[in-house]
Design brief:
Blueprint (H helix, E strand, L loop, with lengths): L1 E7 L8 E7 L17 H14 L2 E7 L1 H7 L1 H15 L6 E5 L11 E4 L7 H24 L5 H4 L5 H10 L24
Parallel strand pairs: 1-4, 4-5
Antiparallel strand pairs: 1-2, 2-3
Helix pairs in contact: 1-4, 2-3
Length: 192
């Protein structure tokens, strides 16, 4: 049995990185199932419940921004995947990982597949669970910190998010080792 693994939130300035591991039935298909980044939010949310209902096993885990700052985002992504794999009620015989690197999980063989979330249903399902769980978490944080627009940008480095950091400073959920603001200041020129 194969478990697909993927993460969400690696490139964000704030919040945790989430990862999911999913084992699907061998013949599982759904017309909407694709890389979560290619889907509308409503379709991701619809598929989340279908995946949770139909999967043979699934789990979602995260590493928070403090841990990301301590061990770096790549290691935190792999750690979140390992935590998700450890929670599976059925252990897989093979792990399919989206991307080109992975830290081995025990003795279980793994394959790294670049753009795997567009090629393998189990990885696509994992990408959907990781993304929807992370989005839900950022929506909750938005209620505490509404100035940052996390209900829309989910912590990614948008102009709106960076402007909020410039005006209001960072929060306990920002990743301190990430460049929160551009290093070069923009100067307003008065050409009168």
């Amino acid at each position: 049995m194969e478990a697909g693994c993927d993460e969400a939130g690696r490139g964000c300035l704030a919040g945790p990185v989430f990862a999911a591991a999913v084992i699907l039935p061998p013949k599982f298909r759904h017309p909407l199932l694709n890389d979560s980044k290619q889907m509308k939010e409503a379709h991701r949310n619809e598929l989340r419940f279908i995946i949770e209902e139909k999967a043979l096993a699934y789990a979602v885990a995260s590493c928070d921004n403090v841990e990301i700052d301590e061990i770096n985002i790549l290691k935190a992504s792999f750690k979140a995947m390992h935590k998700a794999l450890a929670q599976l009620l059925t252990q897989p015989g093979l792990i399919l990982v989206d991307g080109n690197r992975f830290t081995p999980y025990g003795q279980t063989p793994h394959e790294c597949i670049i753009q795997g979330d567009g090629k393998y249903a189990s990885i696509a399902a994992a990408s959907i669970l990781a993304k929807t769980y992370r989005d839900d978490f950022m929506h909750q944080l938005h209620d505490q910190f509404p100035n940052y627009g996390w209900n829309e940008n989910k912590g990614y480095p948008t102009r709106q998010h960076r402007e909020a950091i410039r005006v209001h400073g960072d929060t306990p959920y920002h990743r301190k080792t990430f460049r929160l603001l551009p290093s070069q200041l923009e100067l307003e020129l008065n050409l009168d």
